[in-house]
Design goal:
Largest sheet: none
Order of helices and strands: HHHHHHHHHHHHH
Number of helices: 13
Distance between the termini: 20 Å
Length: about 300
């Protein structure tokens, strides 16, 4: 049976693993050239569904906090994500964003007081190196706009992760997720109508199936477990879980689309997973030592390793 900290990490890891399939769904099922439509139809229906389930609205300062987080984690991130997905091959689009853990580590050291160690920086650099191996092995042309969009999306969500950790969660993850999905989706509606417009002939059955998957699994489910993980895990640790996304994207392209997987890409994926494992093991070991010291000092057990004390 998994311990509580390991179970939290495993459940949270489902979110970036699911997100890794976004790229193949976008390229194979969604309508071409419609990144804003894709972002809105992914966010708003999922947010409204979760709001109907929770029936909880923000209170006080959480109206503007939910709006800010909705822009960072949903509005800006989704738009940039879909632009990158349309302009770059799936594995490449996912791997460019793997610089996010380094951005989160830097922001968390400034805004949350989380210690920025050489080990974290080294693991982040190793993750970037693994990304570089995956990218450099690609035979596809690098679109500069797509690369910038992927980097911008990583930075937007990195700041969203740190602020989510800093501000906490006044309600259950389902409710907090619904607020951000709705606010982020609403922000994208005006640009959608002005720049793309609605599809004149509606959606094809394939596109409908793709949006249904992204709405229910890739958004409502994945973001709920992600925000739950933010509540329970250090920001620097949870950000490294996002490295699973490019690995899944590359594997999905290889398994589903028959894309080539070179030895260099396999090495890059191994390096990425090794950096993730290092950070998680380091956090687990550190938290275990803290728990033992607290138990000896107080005579009562503290929260399990890897779980934040305030999440008891």
């Amino acid at each position: 049976m998994l311990s509580k900290p390991v179970a939290v990490i495993a459940i949270t890891a489902l979110a970036p693993a699911v997100w890794g399939t976004t790229y193949i769904v976008t390229s194979e099922l969604l309508p071409d050239g419609r990144p804003l439509l894709s972002a809105v139809l992914r966010a708003l229906p999922a947010g409204l569904l979760l709001l109907a389930l929770t029936r909880r609205l923000p209170k006080g300062g959480w109206w503007w906090k939910a709006f800010v987080l909705g822009i960072l984690n949903i509005g800006a991130f989704f738009a940039l994500l879909f632009v990158a997905a349309y302009l770059l091959p799936g594995g490449l689009a996912a791997t460019v964003g793997a610089i996010q853990p380094l951005i989160v580590a830097l922001l968390a050291s400034r805004m949350l007081g989380e210690r920025l160690t050489g080990g974290i920086l080294g693991a982040g650099a190793a993750g970037v190196a693994g990304v570089a191996l995956l990218v450099l092995q690609s035979q596809s042309r690098l679109d500069p706009v797509g690369v910038l969009a992927a980097l911008g999306g990583a930075g937007s969500m990195a700041l969203g992760i740190v602020l989510s950790k800093k501000w906490g969660q006044p309600e259950a993850p389902l409710a907090v997720t619904s607020w951000q999905l709705i606010s982020g989706g609403i922000v994208l509606v005006p640009p959608l109508l002005l720049m793309e417009g609605l599809p004149p002939s509606g959606l094809s059955p394939e596109s409908t199936a793709g949006f249904a998957y992204l709405t229910l699994i890739g958004t409502a489910f994945a973001y709920t477990v992600w925000y739950r993980g933010i509540q329970l895990l250090p920001a620097g640790s949870i950000s490294f879980l996002s490295l699973l996304s490019p690995v899944v994207a590359v594997l999905a392209g290889w398994i589903v689309l028959g894309q080539s997987l070179s030895a260099g890409q396999a090495l890059g994926g191994t390096v990425v997973l090794a950096s993730l494992s290092f950070v998680l093991l380091r956090n687990h070991t550190k938290s275990t030592r803290i728990r033992i010291r607290q138990t000896r000092a107080t005579g009562s057990p503290s929260p399990g390793p890897g779980v934040c004390p305030e999440a008891r």
